[in-house]
Amino acid sequence: MFSRIAPATKRSVQQAFKPTVQARFASTKPHVTEQPKQFAAVTAGIVGATGLAYMYADSELSANMADEGLHPPHHPWAHSGPLSTYDHAAIRRGYQVYREVCSACHSLDRIAWRNLIGVSHTEEEVKAMAEEVEYEDGPDENGEMFMRPGKPSDYMPRPYPNEEAARAGNAGSLPPDLSLITKARHGGEDYVFALLTGYMDPPGGVEVREGMNYNPYFPGGAIAMARVLFDEVVEYEDGTPATTSQLAKDVSTFLAWAAEPEHDERKKMGMKATIILSGLTLLSLWLKRFKWSPIKTRKIVYK
Ligand code: HEC
């Protein structure tokens, strides 16, 4: 390295007729800042960031707002902060609403009884709830299928045996499985809440077909599901007043949990990772300064 720099420096010494010249290394700051390049880089950065912001900010808009439905207002959910967890009492109440109201039409295929253990119910409660449902099992030694009481490892029972039966029971419309509904709709739990509380008379000039119900939050405005939540339709065991909006909030929290049961654990892991990684980053910055200090602070003088 030195042998390669030295001859070049020597030449410059001869050219400049200076008694001493400092050698400059790649790690030191150049005297002449390259203005045009910096300007181009900053401009490219600004254009890129604006483009990305535009692309993502606009992604919730549709060409026709009626197709998209009224945009649901955002509510301050207990779990929406970066470090906040679900309101587990609300999950428990929401499960009760799902069981007593929604489960008459909607399945919840991806949730097993055992998933509720430690989240909203104790193991004994879950075992007792599962045992109330009969599941088909088998075959036994005679090749026969038989019915047995449910176990925590069984999945939530479905209201209908198949899609055709579900459609037949709902005038041709299919009640979707609710396991991932907050992930499958724009607005997530805000949408579910707005949908459940948004039923109203159709405005003047809007005709809703027989058997359909007007709901501005549903794309198109006419939904086959009638309003299902009314004040006191469920009696909460913890004594919470069961207003329509309370019921909707609790069942939306429950469905948000069903779609993302790992949510609390994920945030906890994220916090741990952030703490550990930022500690390691500081350590490696310090180590870099330490290792580089002899190189950065040396001065080489040629005579
Ligand atoms: C009487 C049967 C019935 C009950 C009870 C019921 N639903 Fe529905 N639900 C339906 C039907 C049918 C649809 C399909 C509507 C359509 O496609 O027009 C539906 C659709 C939905 C949708 C999807 C809307 C969309 O954007 O596609 C959600 C979310 C929903 N229901 C939530 C609930 C919740 C939460 C409850 C309990 C509080 C509930 N439902 C109770 C029949 C029911």
Automatic annotation (TrEMBL):
Q: Name one GO molecular function term.
A: metal ion binding
Q: For this protein, what reaction is catalysed?
A: a quinol + 2 Fe(III)-[cytochrome c](out) = a quinone + 2 Fe(II)-[cytochrome c](out) + 2 H(+)(out)
Q: Which cofactor does it need?
A: heme c
The places in or outside the cell where this protein is found are:
Mitochondrion inner membrane
State the family it belongs to. Belongs to the cytochrome c family.
Coiled-coil blocks:
none
User: What does the record's cofactor remark say about binding?
Assistant: Binds 1 heme c group covalently per subunit.
Q: Name the chain's protein.
A: quinol--cytochrome-c reductase
The protein's Enzyme Commission number: 7.1.1.8
Q: Which domain of life is it from?
A: Eukaryota
- A cellular component annotation (GO) from this entry: mitochondrial inner membrane
What are the alphabetically sorted keywords of the record? Electron transport, Heme, Iron, Membrane, Metal-binding, Mitochondrion, Mitochondrion inner membrane, Respiratory chain, Transmembrane, Transmembrane helix, Transport
The GO annotation for biological process reads: mitochondrial electron transport, ubiquinol to cytochrome c
Q: What residues does heme c bind to?
A: C102, C105, H106, M225
- Where is the Cytochrome c domain positioned along the sequence? 89-241
Q: What is its main location?
A: mitochondrion
The organism's taxonomic lineage, starting at the top: Eukaryota, Fungi, Fungi incertae sedis, Mucoromycota, Mucoromycotina
The record, for InterPro entries, names: Cyt_c-like_dom, Cyt_c-like_dom_sf, Cyt_c1, Cyt_c1_TM_anchor_C
**Region Disordered, annotated ranges:** 151-174
